[in-house]
Amino acid sequence: MARSAPRPYAHTLFPSPPGSSRFGKFLKLYFDKSAKIKGASLATYLLEKSRVTHIGQGERAYHIFYQVLKGMNSSQLKELHLPSDKVTEYKYIGHGDGNPGKHDQHGLAEVADSFDKQAIEKSEQQNFWQLIAGILLLGNVQFDPSKSDAATVLPASAKSLQSCEAVLGLNPNTIGKALTKKKIKAGSDFVEQDLTIEKANDGRDALSKAIYSRLFDYIIAKINAALVAGGEEINAKDQRIIGIVDIFGFEVFKQNSLEQLCINFANEKLQALFTKSVFEETLKAYKQDGISADEITYVDNKHLIDLFDVPQSGMWALLSEECMVPKGSDTGFCEKLHGAQKKDSALTTVKGLARTAGFQLSHFAGQVTYSTTGWLDKNKDPLNGDLVVLMQFADNPVLQALFTEEQAAPGGKQKIKSNKFKGVVDTFRLQLNDLYSVLDSSQLHFVRCFKPNDAKAKDTWVDDVVSRQLHTSGVLDALRVARTGYPDRLPFAEFANTFADVAGLQKSKLGDKDKCKETLVKLEIPSNKYQLGKERVFLALGILDMLKTKRTERMAKVCVKIQAAARGLKARKLAKRIKEARLIAQREMEAAMGGEDIALMKEKIQAAMSAGVHKAPKGKVSVDKAKARLAE
What we know:
Elements: H1 7-10, E1 24-31, E2 37-45, H2 50-53, H3 63-71, H4 74-79, H5 104-117, H6 122-139, H7 158-168, H8 175-180, E3 181-186, E4 189-194, H9 197-227, E5 240-246, H10 258-288, H11 302-309, H12 315-324, H13 330-339, E6 347-348, E7 358-363, E8 366-371, H14 375-380, H15 385-392, H16 397-404, H17 424-440, H18 463-473, H19 475-484, E9 488-491, H20 492-499, H21 512-522, E10 530-532, E11 536-539, H22 543-593, H23 598-611, H24 617-631
Antiparallel strand pairs: 1-2, 1-5, 3-4, 6-7, 7-8, 9-11, 10-11
Helix pairs in contact: 3-5, 6-7, 6-9, 9-16, 10-11, 10-17, 12-13, 15-16, 20-21, 22-23, 22-24, 23-24
C-alpha cells in the first residue's frame, strides 16, 4: 500500500516505454535475528522535475494531475478553484496525450486510501490536492509577449492567477508581483527590478517544479515514518536487510537532455556493478584457488564512467565549473567538454549538429545523441528568492513546511550547507554513490526485464526486439563467460559428501580433495571439464547438472530397493494375519461340526469360506467334511 502512494506522483506515460517510472527507488526491509520484520524505508533518486512543466507530443505528465481532475466531482473541483475537469484547459498538460488513462477516475481514491492506511489526516491530504491544483493553475499564468523586457501578466490570465493564490493560501496580488519583479539591494535599501518575459516564464516553471518535487519528498518522508513498525528502534548492528532497487532503464528518445544523461549514467554505474559481480568476482575466485582463467575475456565500461567522474576534466566537473563561472553558458560548457576529449573517446561531435549544441555518447547499450540546451539552468535549478519567501508565509501548512524546513534529500541523506556550488547533478551523484556503496557490500541478485515487442501487443514475440535487449544488457556476455569458464564451484567437503557415493566411494578413507578427484575419475568426467583448486572443485558448464542426474538415478535405484523391501515386509505381515485368521476360522468350524447346532454349523462354514479356508488344500478338505456333515 505504501508503494501505491507515491506512484501517481512519479509515473507518467511515454509512447515507449509505456507507464514509465520517472524516478529511481531503493526499498529496504529490516529484519531482526529471528527473521521478524522490524520495518522498512524507501529512498528515491532523481525525480524528473522537468516533466511537471514540459511534456512531449503523445506523452502524459504525472498521473496525479489527471487523477485529481477526473477523480473529483464538480463541487470538489470548485473547492480547489479548478475551472474544469478537461485536460485541455491547462497549459502544462493540455497538449499531451488526450486519451484518458485507465486509472484516471478511480486512481485518486486508491491514493487517498493508501494515505489513510498510513495515518495521513484528511486535512493534510486536502493540502496535497491544493498544491497539485495550484501547479495546474500556475501553468495557466501567461505573460504579455509584447513586453519582453518588463514581464506583465496577461489580463486573460488574471483569473488563473487569483485562483492560484487562493488555492495555495497566498495573499491576493502577491504571486504575480513575485513572478514579474525581483528585489535587489541598493545600498541599505531594496528596490524592485523588472524581470524579462524569459525570466518570468522560467521563474513560474521553477516554482511549479519546486512545489512538486518538494511535495514528493515530503510524501516519501511520511511513508518512511509510517513504515517504521510500531515505532521500534532498528539496531544497526543487529539488522538484517533485504533491499530492492528499482531504477530507471536505459533511455533513448528523439530529444535527449540532462535528465536522460543522468538516467543513463546511473545505468552505466549499475552495469559496472553487474560486470564486477558476474565477471570480476568470478576471476577473483579463480585466482584465489590458483585456477587458470586466461581464456576468459570481457568488456567493461570503466573508460566511460571515467569520462564522467574524472576530476577537473570529467563531464560533471566541467558542468559544475561552468555553472560557477560568471556568464557561463551551455555553449561554453559543450565547447570545453569536446576540448577535453582524447582521440579514442566515447564522446564525439554529432553530424549535422553544431559542436557547441550537443554531443554523441557511446554507452554500453548503444549510441545516444544529447542536446545541451538548458543544461546550466537545469543543474542550477534556480528559484527566485522572493518566491521562496512568499511560499513560507502561505496559509497552506504543507506548502509552508516545504519551503521553511530543511528537506531531506530523496536518497535519505540530509542536505549539508556549504559555500561550494552543488547542483542537481552533484546531489544525484552523491545519492548514486551511496547506493552503489550499499549494493557493492551486499549479496546481489540481478533481474533483467525484457519487452517482447515495442507495440505493447499481447502474445507477440519479436525476435529483433528481444535480441537487441539481450545484447545491450550484458546478459549474452555473462552467458559467454559462464560457458567459457567454470560456473559451478563447490568446496571439497561438500562435493565429496554429495557425490562420492555415486562413484561407490562412500566408505573411502581418502581426504576430501583426493576423494573429489577419485570420484571425478571413476565417473569418467573428462579432465578438461574440471579443475581442483586449493579449497574448491571447479566444474565446467553442465557437469554439475550431469552429476546431480547421476546421483538422482542412483537414489532412484536405492529407493526401488527400499520400496521393494517395504512392500515385501508389508505383504508378509498381511499374509501372516490372513493365515492366522483362516486357522482360527477352521478350528471354530471343526468345533461346531462336533455338535448338533445346525445354525451354528452354517454360520461357521460361511465364516470359514469368507476367511478363505477353502483356498488351502488342507482347508478345502476340512470345509468339504463340514458340508458333508451338515448334509446328513
